[in-house]
Amino acid sequence: MSNLPHEPEFEQAYNELVSTLENSSLFEKNPDYRKALAIVSVPERIIQFRVVWEDDNHQPQINRGYRVQFNSALGPYKGGLRFHPTVNLSILKFLGFEQIFKNALTGLSMGGGKGGSDFDPKNKSDNEIRRFCVAFMTELSKHIGADTDVPAGDIGVTGREVGFMFGQYRKIRNQWEGVLTGKGGSWGGSLIRPEATGYGVVYYVEHMIKYVSNGKESFAGKRVALSGSGNVAQYAALKIIELGGSVASLSDSQGSLVLTEQEGSFTPEEINLIADLKVERKQLSSIATSDKFSKKFKYIPGARPWTHVGKVDVALPSATQNEVSGEEAQALIAVGTKFIAEGSNMGCTQEAIDVFEAHRNANKGAQAIWYAPGKAANAGGVAVSGLEMAQNSARLSWTSEEVDARLKDIMAACFQNGLETAKEYCTPAEGNLPSLVAGSNIAGFSKVAAAMHDQGDWW
Length: 459
Prior knowledge:
This protein is α/β, with parallel strands linked by helices. It folds into 2 domains: 42-181, Leucine Dehydrogenase, chain A, domain 1 (Rossmann fold, 3-Layer(aba) Sandwich); 196-377, NAD(P)-binding Rossmann-like Domain (Rossmann fold, 3-Layer(aba) Sandwich). The protein has 17 helices and 12 strands. It has helices spanning 8-22, 26-29, 33-40, 89-106, 126-140, 159-173, 196-212, 231-242, 268-279, 285-288, 291-294, 326-334, 350-362, 374-377, 380-394, 400-425, 436-454, and strands at 45-54, 60-71, 77-83, 112-117, 149-153, 223-226, 246-252, 255-259, 297-301, 314-316, 339-341, 370-372. The chain has a 7-stranded mixed beta sheet. Strands 1-2-4-3-5 form a 5-stranded mixed beta sheet, sandwiched between helices. It is globular, with a radius of gyration of 21 Å.
């Protein structure tokens, strides 16, 4: 790859997968899978285009638009659209690469892809966002479809943006189809979709807790550190509280809001206030000094919560990539954290993962910290997107109870698949916990590789 530009995020995701495959018995048992690895690491197609839109001063503005259609062996390309000024091809390739194996772990018929733009929705009027979405979808509509590529939302793309884009797709193509997920409930959306990623990571960690404790423990009484304050963090926090746990922190790109006392928790009312704040695209700092928050929380500008939360049982990075460093991983272990799972994609640096895995290898069972990667732990969001696709195809809607039950089943199967695969290909020392990162990587990759082989992509 020496002739390619440096793509640090994609290279990190690629190296993380390859290291776990190489350190297992997978290639020893299936040597031809090396061919599949070389092929799956190159996107089937990358689409890049300009997006010209008009601001409220009637001036033309230009942004870059992308769609990385990475792998379709298991189904239509599936993955979100991210609108954020940091978006570039390296980030979208890393997200799309992870999405291939995450979607495979759900057991649903979905390939992997990702897209977006370097457009920044912050400080834009609703009309400016609408005009941008119309211009973006005018080009993207040529490359997607219900049986080809089904995007969803991601950072900067809420139900509002999905609505604007869906409307433009429908007008251009003159057809109504389930081409985007995360739609409104009255026009093809699925119940539980906004909650799905946050709920799913909690359901996944609950299986981790039950496995280590032989079913004797749950989230009840557990203190949890969360980063982020968007959909994932909000709904994870609400589900943790519902299950009897306490939430010690939330954060955004400007800083962290942390409980001042070791006891207590964010309340559902406080989380709902923060959710309203985020709809208005405001920062946590704007409420940190208010009477409702200043007496109970401390706001730490420019900091992530991990070294400020005190003793916690569970850590759930749920903001963005690389938000837990090696030093922060050591700090979490030092305060007794036993479970860490990524609500965000690639939330931990490779250094942090190495710290967690070394501690797991050096300690027996409940004495170790147990790490779960985002491709397994946060698969709930895309799982319910897949369920939305199924409902659209059948022209029906399931109840929230039915969708939630299916989500629970998918997360349970995702955990069990990673666990059993790790035992088979990376047999842990007696008394040690299996590696969920290795098991999830191998399970997802093996499923995709086998499908590619059957379809003649490699032989």
